[in-house]
Each structure stands twice: as structure tokens, then as C-alpha cells.
Amino acid sequence: MREFSGNSRITEPKLLFSAQNPGAVSIHPLEGLLSFGPFSQNLGGHEFLETIRIAAIYPEGCYQTIRNLISELNNNHQPVERKGYLKQYPGFKSVFKKSLDLLDEQNCLSLPVNLIKNVPLPHIVLSQELVKAIRQMSKFILEFDVLYIYLPELWNSGFQNSEEGFDLHDYLKAITASFRIPTQIIRENSAIKYRCRCSVAWRLSIATYVKSGGIPWRLNTYDEDTAVIGLSYAMRMDAVTDKPQFLTCCSQVFDSDGTGLEFIAYQADEYSTQGENPFLSRYEMRRVMQRSLELYLSRHPGRTLKRIIVHKTTPFKADEIEGCFDAFPNTQIELLQIKQSTPWRAIKLDYPKQVSNYPVNRGTFLQVEPNEILLWTQGLIQSDNWSFYKEAKGIPSPLHIVQFAGSDSWYEHCNIIMGLTKMNWNHDAIYDRLPVTLGYATTLASTLKSLPKLGNRPYEFKFFM
Fold first, then answer.
1. Please, what are the domains in the chain?
2. pTM for the whole thing?
3. Taxonomically, which superkingdom (predicted)?
4. What is the pLDDT at residue 47?
């Protein structure tokens, strides 16, 4: 039996919805959008556009299906699920201050309905035809802002191939990223036939707004001297030898307010493996960190970073630690391993030591070793007269965080991680379990497995959402 000195708790991070109004804050992303509108509504560039134009690829005869979906996004909906959290959706223009329009049918593109009927390799045929359609649409890229690709269940035999490790969603994202086309994959069951149209409207509208170049919210904190980097790896195995063929390293850089910049990916030549986990050499880690720094400074010319925080899911080996310090001389470096899997659990007790009907509060953290803590990014949120438990049932599992280098307090690290769990713009939820540094990096790595030769240049994450 072990006894701990006690636990601490991070208050729920607030989101900011205006660059001009510091009072435009809320812990609830949907409430914030309804009360204040999106963060970028009064900024230049993207916000000069009054209309977001949608192009579409779909099966023959399904243009009206897409038109009906766009019509739904422009109309009002009441929630029929997650009523403790989900808010009434008042229509795209009411929330985002922009119109949402679908291009005429002659400016979209249709494919035969029976495209993969009775073909021996449906995933190859479907992916090839979709790539042809995407290539054709790329010729008119200045005519639209976001490309919707409708995949009906009739084509589901071509969505995956387990033997080849093929996933159509990841493949299409990699292809459209290479064309620099923001896309929204529309699945029949999750978008067209899903019972809660309010939920569909919120999720699709937020994603569409971001993919068109908008910023819905940021964290209500900002430290221009700090950047946070998320690392992940995509390893391709040789089908014959079952040994690694090559390793693609993914790195995404975030501002301290949770705004993702761009990400870089490149093939690493010097690495070792332990089980399924790759570890970079000192040279390779220095290279990826230097490129990450270059990416940050190219977006913030003249700025000097004083603190760099690096997140990854595997331990930092000695060579990787040295590589980070090589890349960032005279800079405070914080290296954190964030593990999802841990046997630790906790229950909440009410006075006097009775088991509560509610789970541990989100933001609770507990130090278990000098350089290790447990942080509950799932759990009960309590604010004023409102409380919410996203998972609805079960005992939430904490993240196990190990510090391999750095001097920041655990409170500081937990506060940053908690904030970054609220910065996924690809859904309408109040938080994710993982911070976006790792959630996004994992998504990128998965996509790169489908198309490893993506090109040696920075990419915005909106192409992979």
C-alpha cells in the first residue's frame, strides 16, 4: 500500500472568441460561439470572404443529398442527444457570420453508382477513381473553399483492406493534402443518416469553417516566448521480412494559446526500435527539432523562443534528449512523455469518505514519483451551476506523465496539457482525452502510412482533418 500527500486540481481552461474583446471567454466552445461568434470574425484575410463555397464529389444522382446537407447546416436544429452539453444550432450564418453555399451541379463531379460492384479489388478501383476526380477538381481550386467527398455505404467494400493496411479516409486525406485541397469526408451513416441533426450540424459546421481558413477559438492564455511541439512516427513494415522499411517522423508546432501552425514530416534514416516503438538517433532528433524551430520562426519572424515543450507518447532516450539540447542551445527545454495506458484509477469520495455518485474532477493531478504524475483529463466538469461528465459512465483513466528534462512545475505542465485537450477543431466536444500535440500528430502519422511520399514541405493541419 502507498500513501500520497494529496492531489491538486487545474481549473477548467477558458477559450477566447475575440482578438479585440478580452471578455469574450467561455469554458464551453458552443456557448462561446453562440455568445461571441468565432475568434477570427474580425480579423483580416479569411474574414473578408462573405461566403464559403463548397464543391462536391459524389455518386451519380446524389447531388441533392449534398444540397440537402448544406441546407441543414444553414438551418436551425434542436439537440436530441447529449442534452447536458449540446446547444441549439441556429444556422451557419448565425454562428459564423458567413454564408455557406454549394456550387451548381455542373461545377461538381459525380461518379458511377455501381463503380465497384463485383470488382475483385474494390479498394483499389474506388481509390483510383476518386483520385482521378480529385485531380480534375484541383484544376478549379480557386472556385471553391472546401471539397466535400460523399462516400455512401454502397461503396463500403472499398473503404478498407486489412491485408494491405489500407484505409480510404487516410488515403484521400493524404492525396488531397498533396493538392492542398481542404476536404470534408461525408459518410452516409455518420453524416447523412445520423439521428441527431443538431450534432451533425455543429460538427460539420465547425470543421468546414476551419478548413476554409477560419479560427473558431483559442485558449485564453498567451506566452509568446513558448512553443509546444508534438512528435509522432509512422513506421512502414516490409511485408516479406516483417522489419521496418522506413520511418516517417511527424512534428507539429503550436503556439502557447493552442493555435497549431503547420507540421513537417520527413523520412528518418538513423533510428532504432524496441518492440513497435522507434527511437531517433541524436542526429535525427536534432534535425527534426531544428526544422520545427525553423517552422515556428518563419511564422514569427524576429521572435526568440525562451521555452520549448516537447510531447511524445514514448520515453525520451539519452540520444533523443541530447539531440533536443543540441537543437535548442540557451533555451529552456521541457521533455514530457504522455502515456495513455496506466493501471491507475481513482474514485471520488464525498464527506465523510463516502463514494461519490460522480467521477474524479477533470483536471485532478497526483504526483506518484519525483518526475511522474497522473493527470485526469477526463472526468467531471463543474462550473457555477453547470456540471458535465462527457463520458457519461465508467471510471475515467488518467494520463501518466513522465518528465525527462525541464524545471517547470507540474501545475504549469498540467495547465498547458489541459488547455490543449480543448483545441481539437474537428468536432464539437468540450475536450479530448489527449492534448492536440499528440492527438494531431497521431492523426498525421496514420495518414502518412497511406501515402508516405507526401513531399518535404510544411502542411497545414486543416488538410488532414
1. 44-211 (3.40.50.2300), 219-463 (3.30.420.10)
2. 0.92
3. Bacteria
4. 54
